[in-house]
Amino acid sequence: MECVAVRPRFVWGVGDTVLVPRFIRMMREGKWKWVDGGRWLTSTCHVQNLCEGLLLAALRGKPNQVYFLTDGPALPARQIVSDLVQANGCKAPGEEASVPFWLAFAGAFLLEQIYAIGRACCCSRSYPEITRQGIILFGRDISVSDAKARRELGYTSHVSVQQGLQEMAEAHASQSKVA
Q1: Is the pTM value of this prediction over 0.85?
Q2: CB pairs under 8 A, 24+ apart, for 15-20?
């Protein structure tokens, strides 16, 4: 069997039921903190760009190759996360809601230990909202290059970040009218 791997980073778009709703909930509950001010860079991949990349990888991908997919250049995390929640009717906190990476990581470690004890003693199945993996994924530069996918597959990321945000804002506005 021949395989082709497709690796998108930070998939987003209309209908997201995981990341953006979680960001919004945490912000509205006052639990959101930027790690190191949210200045770190992150690559993103709109869900329509992911679909484009998956189709192209299936049609043109070379066996045993890995193709990263993005929307284009990496963006500061605070910018993209703020834009995503704003498109969904939520205002992101400013720079004042920031903790240093080391403190966020140490806090996540402690929470993981407390929850592990709870699971061992009480048969609890709950997990902390903040984990070390989450702090690393959303607290450090994680940008990738999709140059290989563009060169070998003809990938173009036809939905820009601005187009995707506009689509989200329009979807949110139409849902707000119905509700």
Answers
A1: yes
A2: 15/47, 15/171, 16/47, 20/84, 20/85, 20/88
Kindly provide the residue ranges of all beta strands, DSSP E only, lying in 24-64, ordered along the sequence: 34-35, 41-42, 45-46
Average pLDDT over residues 55-70: 97
Whole-angstrom distance, CA of residue 73 vs CA of residue 77: 12
- Note the pLDDT of residue 123: 66
Which run of H or of E encompasses 76? strand 75-76
Which domains are assigned to the chain?
Answer: 4-32+39-97+141-178 (3.40.50.720)
pLDDT in tens, 103-146: 999 999 999 998 888 777 776 677 788 899 989 988 899 999 99
What is the distance between the alpha carbons of residues 57 and 67, in angstroms, rounded to a whole number?
Answer: 8
The residues facing 34 across adjacent strands are 98
Phi, psi at residue 112, to the nearest 5°?
Answer: -60, -40
Distances (CA, A) of 137 to 56, 79, 101: 27, 16, 12
Q: Confirm if 8 and 69 have CB atoms less than 8 A apart.
A: yes
pLDDT the model gives residue 95: 81
